[in-house]
Amino acid sequence: MTRRYIVRTYGCQMNEHDSERIAGLLEADGLVRAESEDDADVMVLNTCCIRENADNKLYGNLGHLKPWKDEREGRQIVVSGCLAQKDRDLVARKARHVDVVLGTHNVHRTADLLTASIEASAPVVEILDEAVVDDHVLFPSALPVRRETSYRGWVTIQIGCDNTCAYCIVPAVRGPEISRPYASIVDEVRDLAAQGVTEVTLLGQNVNSYGRDLQLAARRAGDTTARLRPLFGDLLRDVGAVEGIRRVRFTSPHPKDMGPETFSAMAETPSVCEHLHYPLQSGSDRVLALMHRGYTADRYLTRLAQARDAVPGLAVSTDIIVGFPGETDDDFERTLEVAAAAEFDDAFTFIFSPRPGTEAAELTDSFVDPEVSRERFARLRVIIERSSLAKNQAHEGATEEVLVEGPSKKNPSVITGRTRHNKLVHFTPPRSIRTGSYVAVEITRGAPHYLEGRFVDMIAESTHRLRIPVAVA
């Protein structure tokens, strides 16, 4: 009897991409996707550990899954991802009904470990301390895939991170920066385009530093022509030139590494979208120094102005942490000032949560009172939503290219899609429109978190194939 699986994903786009690869590996091993938990034989929880409540959420979900597992003989539970990498044996100790625990460096072993657990009739924990240096398993994009959307693809260009941000656990769970070979990235994008994918997102913990390690390795090998600089601008141009690719996105860059070469590549490559996710984290130079971010508020705003000068109509989103240890009222006022000056289109705002294993988690004497953090958070949201509304209202009357994502969850008669600026648009179509199609929509109303519009015309019918597992060479 064919076994069925479900993958639940928590966290960032990198985790979403890992989940697609896990699904692809399971299907390559003969499993098929289940329509519901009741039908599933294998449950995979692909975890994140960026936020404090990630631990509670995981162990709460694992507790609820014990009765699910007991209902049917042979059911298995897998915990993967960053939290598994961080907690290691703790997952198996806290939830003894978990069958497999694997980390961020051995996604390629998912199906093998499931089999090993069955053969041993015992839980299996395999956490590698560093990535396996093999192009066929090192990068998620080198593994079989079951894409959640057939018209859009994630492409990993780099794993790990060399930064030392005081609040971030990523370097500990993802390892140092390793750039994927340049040609293999472009080849994968060509393969995706051949399958009908029209939008790709380049993924990395610090995408704009892509290629520095490749250049350094080339220098060490005796190549005196290798330039010790990031290759990201070149990569944007070459990926954007692939026939069939209409949109190129990327996430996330680091402000300390952001320079004119990236802005020039964005401006000169028509398929690169006019959207930049540009994490601020704090507007206080003192707090930025405590965070080890490597830039000042003034430098951040200067580079932002350069980006907007280079790319007309650029939409900018950001990340901001409220209540970092030691943040004073004056520090927070600086954040409000920078957020207002930056006029962001959108922002992901968070109240600081300590992550065990990070420098900031040890600063307990400097923790900000939770009530103070909540009050600051509310004040910041007022600033962010004010600028978001103004930015969205500025699109009223314009006709935008929209990539159709499907029916609205709240109203199936309404279609949702995204503009090149990554803005969500709701509109009523005159007829059924396939997901992955491009349409022209006149924007009639801008709200803080979305746009409303009127269908104008079809630009391009969807060309993506039906969703199937794909092995990328």
What is the CATH-assigned architecture of the largest domain? 3-Layer(aba) Sandwich
* Low-pLDDT residue spans: 467-473
CATH superfamily of the largest domain: Methylthiotransferase, N-terminal domain
How helix-rich are the residues, as a percent range?
25-40%
**How much is the average pLDDT?**
88
CATH class descriptor name of the largest domain:
Alpha Beta
Number of spatially distinct domains? 4
User: In this structure, how is the largest beta sheet organized?
Assistant: 6 strands, parallel
Radius of gyration (Å):
23 Å
- Placed side by side, the strands forming the largest sheet appear as 2-1-3-4-5-6
Secondary-structure class? alpha/beta
Walk me through this protein's architecture.
This protein is an alpha/beta fold. 35% of the residues lie in helices and 21% in strands. The protein is built from 15 helices and 19 strands. The strands form 5 sheets. It has a 6-stranded parallel β-sheet, sandwiched between helices. It has a 5-stranded mixed β-barrel with strand order 15-16-17-19-18. Strands 7-10-11 form a 3-stranded parallel β-sheet, with helices on both faces. Helix 10 packs parallel to helix 11 and helix 11 runs parallel beside helix 13. The longest helix has 24 residues. It is globular and about 60 Å long. 44% of the residues are buried.
